[in-house]
Every structure is written in C-alpha cells, then in structure tokens.
Amino acid sequence: MQRIYLFVFLFFVCSCGNRNKPIAIKEPKNKPVILLQPLSFNDSPTLVFLKDSIEQFYPVTIEIAKLQQFPPHCYYKPRNRYRADSAIKWLKQGKPVSVRAIVGITKEDVSTTKSGQVDFGVMGLGYKPGDACIISTYRLKKTANSPQHLRERLFKVVVHEMGHNFSLNHCPDQQCIMVDAEAKMKLDGVKGLCTSCKQKLQL
C-alpha cells in the first residue's frame, strides 16, 4: 500500500513540474522567399552582400535570379533612362507564385511620375502593399565615399522599398529606415526600423 501511495505522490509531483516548464515557441519552417533580380547589373559580390544583409534585417529567404536586361518598353528615350513603374509591372508579371516579392537591382537611371513631374528620377520605387520594387545605384554612387559605402546605401534603399511592399508607409521618425528620402540621401545615419514600423510590418 505504501508503495502505491509513493507512486501516486511522485506522479503528481512530476506532472506539476512539467506544467510549470516554459513552452518553446517554434519559428515558422518556411520563411517568405524574396527574389533579387539583377537588371543590367552584373556585380555578383554586391548581390551576395545584399542577400546576407537582407536576411539579417528581415525574416526572409533571399534567392538571386539570373541576370536580365530591361525590356525595351521600359526605356524612356527623352531622358535616356528607364521607367521604374513600367519595370515593376514587368517584374510582377514574371514573379513565380512561390515568391513573396521580387526586387529589381540595376545600375541604370530610373524614374517615375511624382509631384506633378512626368519623369522624376528616383533611387528606388516600391508600392504599398506590393510584391515588386526596383532600386538603382545610379544616384546612390554619385556621393558615395567608397564601394562599401555604396553597398550600404544600396542595402538601405532596398529594405526601404521592400518595407513599402510589406505595407509600411513613410515614417516621421528621422532615425527609421522608412523615413521619406525627399529626393535626398537621408539613410546614411539610419540603422533600422523604429518600434512602430516593426509592429506594422506585414510579410
């Protein structure tokens, strides 16, 4: 009889102990896939840098696509550059179903219609929400101090435009990477998303 009581007592103690153990939260097995699409851009080390940096910044998996050229209809002959809005539409049409968003990277100058101007040069463009964006090094490199500085700038503009795809607006916090560039390079001193933008992020 004593052995039975002892067994019941031990079972009760062990059961209570298991109830008090914290339950581990499992991370999702499959992170959203983002496709980096080089457009007239053959800088492989920079693409690898972007892949590693973006995966540290957002909980996504980055895949690098094969080099492609801009389709002819995106070219804007009067200014010798490419229409970012047309390029985004074209990227979306070729986006695999399994991919959350496609990010075009180019060295060519790109533009869009903005602030009443039909052809306004931009560093990048991404719609909110969306599943494609495009970023150019053309304006970023003009005042970059070094190749590494250019890469860091490119990365920040990339995650900014991706942020729009992930449903983020421009942020009034001047230290947030979603701050409105206002046609200037304002991201040099910015390192990440503010708390508010992190909470609004929709991957």
UniProtKB/TrEMBL annotation:
Cofactor: Zn(2+)
GO molecular function, one term: metal ion binding
Coiled-coil residue spans: none
GO biological process: proteolysis
Source organism (scientific name): Lacibacter luteus
Claim: Translocase is one of the keywords in the record: no
Matches recorded under PROSITE patterns: PROKAR_LIPOPROTEIN
Matching InterPro entries: MetalloPept_cat_dom_sf (IPR024079), Pept_M54_archaemetzincn (IPR012962)
Protein name per its UniProtKB record: Zn-dependent protease
Annotated Pfam families: Peptidase_M54
